[in-house]
Design a protein that fits this description.
Organism: Croceibacterium atlanticum
Low-confidence stretches: 13-21, 104-131
Helix content: 10-25%
Shape: globular
Radius of gyration: 25 Å
Structural class: alpha+beta
InterPro entries: DUF4136
Number of helices: 3
Oligomer: single chain
Protein name: DUF4136 domain-containing protein
Length: about 200
């Protein structure tokens, strides 16, 4: 009886471990690239307004989410963020979120005997491999791009972009969390080394 009970516990423990593996999440580092113009001394001072880049959405809930995250970072850098047209500088914002759906779905159950395979329930299977993960997890690609311009001349003073990927079961599947992470990474160590691409964890 003891042997039978112990034997029944082993598959159960393995099964529980496999289930735990299915709940794993993935979050990539944030990839950041920045470029600084010739008038870098003007960065981080004065007034600035956050606007949608030409052709981009403005006034939407999604825009507000990203704009607020960028505005918080700009304020922390020393800017005074304003809403009016009289700002000395403007931050033109673009953003995007895309869901990557894997095209290949793996077979959920397979039975192996040595080097051969058979269908489940064939009665000849000695080792049963169960893929509990089902289809590969959908991934969300999130990105932002910001150009800081002199409002009077339109000259670009600074430009940066940031992007990362996360599984849908991660904390960053939320648009608000993704926006905050992107903005924080984008302005980390501002203005950054011009032309250099870095990864921010």
């Amino acid at each position: 009886m003891l042997k039978r009970t112990f034997a029944s516990l082993v598959p159960a423990a393995i099964f529980a471990g496999m289930l735990a593996g299915c709940t794993s999440t993935y979050v990539s580092p944030v990839e950041v690239t920045r470029f600084t113009g010739s008038r870098a001394a003007q960065l981080g001072t004065g007034t600035i307004a956050v606007r949608a880049a030409p052709g981009g959405p403005d006034g939407t809930l999604e825009f507000s989410t990203y704009a607020n995250a960028v505005a918080e970072e700009l304020a922390a850098l020393g800017y005074r963020v304003v809403r009016d047209e009289g700002a000395s500088q403007v931050a033109e914002l673009r953003f995007g979120r895309f869901i990557n759906r894997p095209g290949e779905i793996r077979s959920p159950v397979n039975v192996g005997v040595g080097g051969s395979t058979g269908s489940y329930g064939s009665g000849v299977g000695v080792g049963v491999g169960i893929d509990l993960s089902g289809p590969p997890k959908e991934m969300i690609d999130s990105n932002i791009a910001v150009i800081i311009r002199d409002n009077a001349t339109g000259q670009a003073l600074w430009e940066g972009r940031a992007q990362f990927r996360a599984s849908q079961n991660s904390d960053y599947a939320s648009q608000n969390a993704a926006a905050q992470r992107l903005a924080s990474a984008l302005f980390s160590g501002f203005p950054g080394e011009s032309g250099e691409t870095i990864e921010v964890k």
